[in-house]
Design goal:
Layout: E1 4-10, E2 36-42, E3 49-51, E4 54-62, E5 66-73, E6 78-84, E7 89-94, E8 97-102, E9 106-115, E10 122-131, E11 138-142, E12 181-183, E13 186-190, E14 194-200, E15 206-210, E16 218-223, E17 227-232, E18 236-246, E19 249-261, E20 268-272, E21 280-282, E22 288-293, E23 300-305, E24 310-315, E25 318-323, E26 327-336, E27 343-352, E28 358-360, E29 366-370, E30 374-381, E31 386-390, E32 396-401, E33 404-409, E34 413-422, E35 429-438, E36 444-447, E37 451-454, E38 460-467, E39 472-476, E40 482-487, E41 490-495, E42 499-508, E43 515-523, E44 531-535, E45 538-541, E46 546-554, E47 559-562, E48 570-574, E49 577-581, E50 592-602, E51 609-618, H1 626-640, E52 647-648, H2 653-665, E53 690-695, H3 700-708, H4 711-718, E54 722-730, E55 733-740, H5 774-781, H6 812-819, H7 850-857, H8 886-893, H9 925-937, H10 967-977
Parallel strand pairs: 4-10, 13-19, 21-27, 29-35, 37-43, 45-51, 52-54
Antiparallel strand pairs: 1-2, 2-5, 3-4, 5-8, 6-9, 7-8, 9-10, 11-14, 12-13, 14-17, 15-18, 16-17, 18-19, 20-22, 22-25, 23-26, 24-25, 26-27, 28-30, 30-33, 31-34, 32-33, 34-35, 36-38, 38-41, 39-42, 40-41, 42-43, 44-46, 46-49, 47-50, 48-49, 50-51, 53-55, 54-55
Length: 1042
Amino acid sequence: MKKMLAFILAAALALLPGCNTPAPQAETSQEAPACTLELAGEGLALEPRQEADGVHIPLEMASGEHLTLTCTATPGCQVREAVGATGLVGAVVGEEKLILTAGSVGTDQITVTCGGEGYQDCTVILEVNISAPVLPLVVTCAPLPQAPEGGEEGQLPEEAPPADALAGEEEPEGILDPAIRYEDGKLALPVAASCALLLEAPEETVYTLTAPEGEAAAEVSLHPEGYLAITGLEVGSCAFTLEASHPDWSAVTLAVEVQVSLPALLVTPEAEGFLLDAPSLEQGKNGYRLTLAGLPEEAKVELRQDNQNVAFNLVKEQLSITPKAVGVTKLNLDISCEGFQPLSLEYEFEVTTTKAALTLNGGKSAATVWVEGSISLPIALGAGAELLLDYPKELVEVERVGNTLSVKGIAPGTAVLSATARKEGLADNLQRVTITVTPHQAVAITLGSRSLAGIIGQSQTVRVTTNPADAKVTISGGGSIADCSYSGGVLTVTPFAPGSATIAVTASKAGYTTSTAYINLTVAAQAGKITLWTSPTYLNLSPGEEGSFTIRATPEDVKLELQPASAGVKCQLSGRKVSVQAPGPDEFNSNTLTVMVTVTASKEGFPEATATVSVTVKMPRDTSNYTRRVFEIVNQERAKVGAAPLVYMDDIQDAADLRAREIQTKFSHTRPNGESCSTAVIPYGYSGCGENIHMGTTTPEAAMTSWMNSPGHKRNILDTSYYGIVVGYDSNAWVQLFIPTWAVGSCTYCTGCTTKGSGHGCNSNPALCRCDCAACKKLRENSTCTLCTGCTNTKSNHGCNADPARCTCTCDACKKLRENPFCTLCNGCTKTGSNHGCNADPARCTCTCDTCKMLREACTLCPGCTNTKPNHGCTGDPATCTCTCDLCKTLGNFYRPCTICTGCTATGPNHGCIGDPRTCYCTCDGCKKLKEDFQNSLPCLVCTDCTKTGSNHGCTGDPATCTCDCAGCEKWRQLESSKPDPTPQPQPEPEPTPEPEPTPEPEPEPQPEPEPEPTPEPTPEPPPAEEEAAPPADGSGEAPAP
């Protein structure tokens, strides 16, 4: 166990040989005082030893460990140097600190010298013992991996994600039963439940399991994939141990105690009309209910109450509550169900007379506020009533301002704000709001290890955890000796050369301060041994396809030799690269061919080393008609609900095929480069799209069945706002891209724009246009300069700058601005000319005149801000301002009403309004009505002459079945019915007394009838689901806003 020690060293000159000799002085002078030094750090011995050459202190470190010691010296003295004896420990002297880095196993002595002018030096010798690091073993409890179809438990299918990965789901691992808990070697597990203990350790770690003996309460097995599978068998307890060993680390033993119990009944009581933790009922009022959500049908519920002031009636899982008389009634609910632990619920219902009127936060029971931020909660209090407030003052501050409560966050946590309305003659009315106070602070980073002792060619993993969990993580450094990659919270490090490096792990998130943590990596050369490895370690090829892999080896001057391959696989070695060509489809009989390619490395005096690469060749299935088959099924499903068929968008087939390949790398609506899926269609002139994704099935019918069984995917498939579709397929990865109607057609904003539709950044003012097409770029380049007043240049990037001191434009107007003897950057500046430090941004102005000093101290972003220093959080936008002055906080709490869409009831910025009902994704009632009115205003697209707008008014496109009552459809039906028969019947010969007989009406030829399907009743269009800027993870992404 490492200890903390702070000690003071006072070294006299006579006791320290080798110290500096003082200069000769007069007989009356005194000897210079001794320097003192105080060190503090982990691992220092409790008892330092005083020897002739200084004070010796033992110090224990692990190989690769990074240790910082605090150095506090006598004022006027400082640590001058720290020198190692063997070089196994690196020592760096910093400002009041000493940084030590341990190398390979062994011992070293670090001599620390401290001194100063007028003081005698003192010496401390750190005796460092470096031991092998303890094997880093991380154990995580997770759901047991499910067996894929046709495979064994815990294995993943080839070319697909886990078999339980549903279409559009990004987390196929499942959810852990809340009754399963693992902490500090103790595992709680219900009977018949299973879980996995995931083992994370360096490669080449060997596990030895000692399972429970006899008829144990749980079954424990070690899976080859690197986890422990545990299943509860019967009520009881048992224990097992797992030893983890590694040639380069000290072994560790994991001891786990398993407690197996009956599973708990997961019943969630939900109250309606009263607070669950303080049930208060009003006499004579109805509508009180308690729902036992999750109650099994076979469960038995026994009700026990101590009086009849309240009547209870239980029907299935719903308990109706009727208050009869004033008083308190205690209710016990005893719930039992075979195979579960019994559950007992107890409530005390208080029946009161009429309560004082009170509505808190509009009836909403939850709110969120930042530390140092403020929010306003509306409150409606009855006339003559007194308001009493109770809240944790260490978390929030609450102040009543008129009909609102102003809540300020003080510290992170969960605060319950209780408001009670009290009026004489009426019962108290208590209401609560749970307020979550979240920190505005730096992103926290937790690393599974801060030091790695790597072995060439062997990968190690480090778990990276951030708070908040959705912070963006980037990795840098280490590239000179190791390959580093990050995915899913795990950093993988694969060394390829000896040496040492620092790996930086950086986490960032909007609204938080970016943080960086470091990992020290040391990679030692393996003496007398050849290390050989390949990248990649396997190749999957199609018949006739070519591939390659790279060889890395230490020492670098080894001789490489390629062994001949078999089964028609051709290989060629060139330098450190091996080219591989698969045989053609006629050269092997089976559907799959697997061949091992072997490379041998040799050098005189070294044992030979080999590396193998697995080459798999698969005959491709005939999938040429897969995408068209999905397209056919989509339109069949749309026809069933009366939706118009989609058009197949051949021009963006490449985009769909690309997305099918991308989701095999990252199964998400976010592309591997971090962009939204909708950006895949931008190069083809479309500014947005919707997307469905799916993996794991092998036929179009199976993929469509999965999509249609998911509400989000089904909504995309049947959405009437879409114009076209394109389908991508690759190796059991399926993608549907939907192009909305508003994205089709020519741009009407910028002349010559080649981007289709609207909402892609075009603006009639070229200075505000953000479209990336060549025509719009040219318009912007030829637009009038907006940086310098009077500039006669018409192209951008010609040297103009809002600061004349930095303007390099050569036009006469800009020259005149630069020659102005008076400062034009800061209002009231008393200096003349330019380049004297003025800047239009007071935060960057360095002018020393009194006016500029005053401008720098005053806030110019938010009107009325009382802060006087720059960079205090003001942005000029209440939605993004983080200033802590009272005025800015008040402005930030009241978002402005929407001015974009007429009738919008939402407030504040970024709520989805765009001003175009085709692209607006605001969810307020006003915008919903705008979108509905827009859809209903569109002309009928089914019958050509129909004079009605919207849909579901009877048009079918066939006069025989059209029931629309407009004049156009009626006329069309009459014309169709009056057309002559194409094969008229022969006329009879005229009689002696001819009299014309009416020509019989021609009967239409029989047409083949489709299979009878029930005609769906027209249903009102559901309100649009709440959309986000990017499609949600379940694949039900609507067309994103431009």
